[in-house]
Amino acid sequence: MATPLKSSTLQRPESAIDTDRTGLKPRLLDQVRDVIRCKHYSIRTENTYTEWVRRYILFHNKRHPKDLNEKHISAFLTHLAVNRKVTSSTQNQALCALVFLYRQVLKMDLGNFENVIRAKKPSKLPVVFTCEEVRQILLQLNGVHWLMGQLLYGAGLRVMECVRLRVKDVDFGYHQIVVRDGKGHKDRVTMLPKIIVDELKRHLQRVKKIHETDLADGFGAVYLPYALERKYRNANRSWPWQYVFQASRRSIDPRTGIERRHHISETVPQRAIRSAIRKSGITKAGSCHSLRHSFATHLLESGYDIRTVQELLGHKDVSTTMIYTHVLNRGGKGVQSPGDTLFNKESMASV
User: Fold this and answer.
1) Catalytic positions
2) S-S: 145 plus which of 17, 78, 137, 272, CB 3.0-4.6 Å?
3) Contact 280, 140 (CB under 8 A)
């Protein structure tokens, strides 16, 4: 993603960014935020979309988007690709933000954006670790990092699903985890690795003591999605709704201004996994998500059917899960290299 604009570059007089021409409606960016929140998008999406709208307006000299059209969108996207040299995914992200602005906020129909050149996302195979490589990575982790690494690989969680996990969604009786409001606003059930049960219980005991201390200090309320905080008035202070992986200190909620103890930042497991890969001496360019890729691939290697793996991963379409079958072919399309047929081990020993 392109480098965020510095605050000094955003100081401007009243313009399209601040208010409409009558001065009676909320600022445009506030309108964007309101619509995003009505659709229950995440705060990450809110920040990303408003930033792209801001960049778009500044690129066109602070002209109001109502005065711009499809050609201006195309010019902005071309600028990103040619001058800023952003990736195709970043360019498409900017396009999604502008489509949202025009269709959902301004209620303007610009057609099907036929003249806008959509960057084609390159077809890339996922980075998959072998079982031994996963073992070496996890051996480099300890404490909370080890628990999170085991959940990323042993349960196939996405990194945000892991950090947002709540106490009530860990079922020790059935050895399962309920992923709430995952990607695409879908719930699903996946397994709880038995190897982490004892350590996870000890971890939760430590977290509960922190929660009790917060309650004694007049805090202890956690963020609840949608209107649950009004519907269940004491739920936000109850133990089941607390995050499994809490932040080390309380912080201010950017939307409400309330001081809470939020979940741990996603950068914590990301840095830990990158460090573990480096210490393991593995040359693959892996990440947290590579553990999820490895989870799916190893299940398929073990003989589990692809529909089961699809449900565990939470994929909407089985074609998304099919990408993991490439490893099962053992090489390019399962074809044996002609170099392997020229010599056997005995003949190579004499070379």
Assistant:
1) 158, 183, 289, 292, 315, 324
2) 272
3) yes
